[in-house]
Amino acid sequence: MDFISPEGLRLDGRRPFELRQLHAEIGVLDNADGSATFEMGNTKVIAVVYGPREVQNRSQQQLDHALVRCEYSMATFSTGDRRRRGKGDRRGTELSLVIRQTMEAAILTNLLPRSQIDIFVQVLQADGGTRACCINAAALALADAGIPMRDLVASCSAGYLNSTPLLDLNYLEDSGGGPDLTVALFSKLDKVTLLQMDAKVPLDVFEKVMNLASEGAKAVTQFLREILMENTKKLAFAKEPLKV
Amino acid sequence: MLQSKAYVKKTRHGRVLKVVREHYLRDDIACGTITCTACDNSKACLSASPAPIIVFDTNVVLRQIDLLENSAISNVVVLSVVLEEVKNKDLSVYNRLRTICSNPARNFFVFSNENHRDTYIKGLAGESPNDRNDRAIRVASKWYHEHLGPASKVVLVTNDAENKRKALEEGIDAQTVEDFVRKLGQAELLDLLVGAGTEDAQTTADADDNRPSKRKVIYPEHKLMSEITSGLHKGIYHQGKLRVNRYNGFEATVSTESLGQEILIHGRIDMNRGFDGDVVAVELLPQEQWQENSLEKIVEDVDEDESEEPVGLVPGSAEQLPELIETGPAARPRGRVIGIIKRNWRQYCGSLEPVENTSSAGGKVNALFVSADRRLPKIRIQTRQLENLSNKRIIVSVDSWERTMRYPSGHYVSTIGDIGDRATESEVILFENDINNKPFSQQVLDCLPPLPWSLPAEELQNPNRRDLRQVRVFSVDPPGCKDIDDALHCTLRPDGNYEVGVHIADVTNFVLPDTALDHEACQRGTSVYLVERRIDMLPKPLTEDICSLRADVERLSFSVIWEMTPEAEIISAQFTKSIIKSCAAMSYAEAQARMDDSRLSDPLTVDLRNMNRLAKIMRQRRIDRGALTLASPEVKFEIDSETHDPLDVGMYQIREANQMIEEFMLAANVSVAEKIVEHFSQFSMLRRHPVPSPKMLEPLLLTAAAVGVDLDISTSKALADSLDRAVGGDPYFNKLIRILATRCMTQALYFSSGDCTPPEFHHYGLASPIYTHFTSPIRRYADVIVHRLLAAALGLSKVPGALREKTMLTSVADNLNLRHRNAQMASRASVELHTLIFFKNRPTDTEARIVRIKSNGLIVFVPKFGIEGPVYLTGKKDKKDESDWIVNEQSQTTESRDGKYRFKVLDKLVVHIEVVEPQPNRPKLQLTLVDQANECMSIK
Ligand SMILES: [Zn+2]
To answer: Are B281 and B292 within one domain?
Structure first.
């Protein structure tokens, strides 16, 4: 199958190095301490954060740092075919773990001993790149909850099809059989906090795909920063009348 | 800008899904016009004036692709909406269109109108997809006109009246194809048009009368696609590829998965307009109609004189055997075609049937096209240049086949040359076998190192390249060989063992992965050897100079070096890139003469003798393991160096020297195969030879039994041994049996190791558990891949990324198998052509052997010329019981009624060979029996 036309356009009209359209909203649930939705094209994820709060199960309490828990799920309506996706399936467990580890690395957990932070991530609509989208949504929700973090974490995926590195694969490209690499970065610290790929590729290809994904993640960071900025301005504006 | 496309799709399991896809619209898509200042014109190729910019609509592209391929058409905008529609409707047209677009000389520009923010349109409510696409084409045409300014001219070519009317209303210059071509002012182009009006054509005597009043239905109607689908589902119909008998165009088979058995289709009516290679739906006939053809005749009695077994080269393998109709006790199911699921129409090569009435000079006339390929029906075409074409080899395309037409209708595409001209006929052979003999493109030539090439100094410093220039390396090849890809050395070590090296041209040092050169070589797959010329896989500077391991020049090579005991046991194998300097490039005859000349004792001769001794031991060991020594009579022509006409023909002589080289090449291939599979078990390019099924060996057993030879086919070892035991009264008997055995085997195949399990790697003919091709990278692409894999296995380079893509190697292997088969077919056809030219003025009487006895004649094999063909004993029209001959098929004997003659299979007899021309422009060889008294027996 041709994923890129000889004219250099992908199936959806993007060029190989382009992200899909990004969209984010912060504070979508009033109940929660922090919440956000994040969209990459047709992939839409909601992340909700509760905490820091008291540890529910005392035996799990950590004396020197916060307990971070994460639950990932996929809405039944998230894909076209109506299949029940339990929380307990392997992919779900794995993703929960990946998101938790990535977020744990970002949060300054030692500042919040004996507390618990719960992150709930749900995929509302899936069209490839859910992993990256979940991390981005979780990052925004954590920021919204005001949890102290080392740096803003942002994630992006990239793949390799028709001998070309492609940024931010959609579902169609994702099922093209090529490698799919997800990377998450602390862009200020210039550190990689997550790197996942379950395919064998030659080293030079890997480098290209990795670089592309990192570039993508940096672009996402930029976007996240803008969104947060805007949100902060809004909050500041909302608070102003109170002062008067 | 973002548009979202939503549509409803049915999944494979029959569930209905709503699919939403993003569709991004862009503002950075260039118009492709050289003079445009608004767009990025780095890839531009169109000129805005004075020539108009041409836009074709989908139907025009689909129908008139032959016209588009003509170089007279240029400055064309191909819209992505058109490409997409063409792709969905006909992939082969799509690929042809893409080829045109990628040719920079043609000035076809692909404009992604569907992704351009100004030319993308949304379907309106109630608008059909077709109407929407037509509108998109109009919008894009109009956009071009507006974008390029009022001075520009944009022509929309469409044959859809409604579309044309709307276009004119919107101010677009719309024309029909006919008008458009007429304005180009080249009469020849009009012949390329499909379905140009038939009303003004003069009907010639030979062609069909197609006036409506006289039309009668000849073929049954094709069933509707929905009926076929449900029929297939219910198991009433069967789907499969129609395979027309290469030797009899009135007989075809369809292999179906649903029935697990081949269905026989007999006659053109039952074939119901199917072409060879079409995917068809077949309905079985009632069982009582599965009548047995009791004894196959050489010629089927059919209503036309087209079908007849030709005299040709001896088949070299099972693939080249005439597809004979089984005569087993169980009659095979017979069926008829009720619908065509997928057409396999391509361009065909042949000539026009002579027409008596040629008075219609200049006007449009109907003519019948006949191909040399017997699988094809005649094709009716219309032409305005009948006189020009009557003695030419031409290429035509098929357009349609109506129920009322005996023959399909098509149109002229191009002319190759004069019939009978040797160059033209060779060209025809290449065309028929889909062999690319176009000169290499500039992009490909740009990949070559600058000439003259000499060993770069840095290669001497390269720690990974062993300097073997001091070693006494030599090569042995056929006389006159210019593309020398292998050389050898053999030196005695102080410890009494031998160091034996096989050095192969380091082609991959020059053919780098993913370059234009690499893609071209991969496409070509192999060099093709015709009798008088060679079509190279790689450009000449590489094949004959830079890579060729010629004598006395320093060359890069890839070496396999073994340490061997005097008993030819391999102690170790090393692989290394190297530099060699061959000291002698010998022919087989020269090498043989050196070895045989007892007076010589120079080091080179001693090396040769040592090697030969080792090779003999290796060969014997291989035979003991069960390798088959098969035989195929390879014919060698002596060609006049000036006229290129054949002067003499004879069998290729196999010497010990040939076998010596062969032995070491086999050993190198096996060593390399083991090495690469060890490192890359999932994507190594290997070669396997499947065990022949007992059914394939049946004809061999039948013949052997008839002459009292008992063959054991249980294993290759048993077969090899029983072939050894099969000695008859004369020395040629054994060779004959081996030739018959060879043709029962299928050919070996390339495959990716990831696609088979290790036991399937087995090479039956060589009795080797694993095999590959490493030794001829100049002329075979498989070897190029193997070189890269070996280099990667040694850590000298990376594995080319493409090889790791799962299906990549599989598709490369498939292509190589196809290319090799085509190359072989072409070589055979070329030899046949030259045999024909040779016998034209040299009718000859010569000895022949009977290889098969049929109801109305004998199939004989002429060892001296390597040809095989029928000798008819009965006339075509004779009824079986009136025949002068009594045939016993079981014992493969035949006897004349008067008892004067008696023939048994493998008997010797004398035949007369001459060229006859029963139909104009179709000369062929004819074999007739010469009886002892040297008098031609009356046969026809
Ligand atoms: Zn422009």
So the answer is: yes
More confident site: B113 or B363? B113
Q: Do B801 and A205 touch (CB under 8 A)?
A: yes
By residue range, what is the domain housing residue A99? Answer: 22-239
Q: Kindly list the residues from chain A whose CB atom is less than 8 angstroms away from the CB atom of residue B800.
A: 202
Cβ B110–A163 below 8 Å, yes or no? no
Q: Which of B376, B374, B379 is nearest to B398 (CA)?
A: B379
Q: Name the interface residues of A facing B (CB cutoff 8 Å).
A: 5-7, 9, 11-14, 18, 20-21, 41-42, 80-81, 127, 163, 170, 172, 177-178, 200-205
Residue B454: is its pLDDT beyond 60? Answer: yes
Chain B residues inside the 8 Å CB shell of A172: 21
Beta bridge partners of B911: B846, B929
Domain boundary pick from B157, B186, B215? B186
Average pLDDT score over chain B? 80
B667-685 pLDDT tens trace: 999 999 999 888 888 888 8
CATH number at residue A148: 3.30.230.70
Ligand 1 geometric centre to CA of B112 (Å): 13
Asked, for residue B17, whether it belongs to a domain, the answer is: no
Burial class of B602 by CB neighbour count within 10 A (0 to 12, 13 to 18, 19+): exposed
Enumerate the residues of chain A whose CB falls inside 8 A of the CB of residue B103.
Answer: none
Residue B882 is classified by DSSP as G
A202 closest CB neighbour out of B112, B801, B806: B801
Look up the CATH number of the domain holding residue B52. 3.40.50.1010
Are B751 and B687 a contacting pair, CB within 8 Å?
Answer: yes
Count of C-beta atoms within a 10 Å radius of residue B306? 15
Which range marks the domain in which residue B737 is found?
A: 694-744
Residue B202: the pLDDT is 40
* Average pLDDT for B546-575: 90
Q: How confident is the model at residue B314 (pLDDT cuts 50, 70, 90)?
A: low
CA nearest B330: which of B262, B281, B283?
B262
Residues B327 and B361 in one domain: no
Q: Are residues B798 and B910 in the same domain?
A: no
CA B210 to chain centre: 36
Residue in B with minimal Cα distance to A2: B87
pLDDT, one tens digit per residue, over B418-442 is 887 888 888 888 888 888 888 888 8
Strand partners, A216: none
Residues B538 and B675 in one domain: yes
Partners of A205 on chain B (C-beta within 8 Å) are 801
Asked if B667 and B771 sit in the same domain, the reply is yes
Q: What is the CA radius of gyration of chain B?
A: 31
Domain boundary pick from B800, B827, B854: B827
Which pTM was predicted?
Answer: 0.70
Quick check: is A222 in a domain? Answer: yes
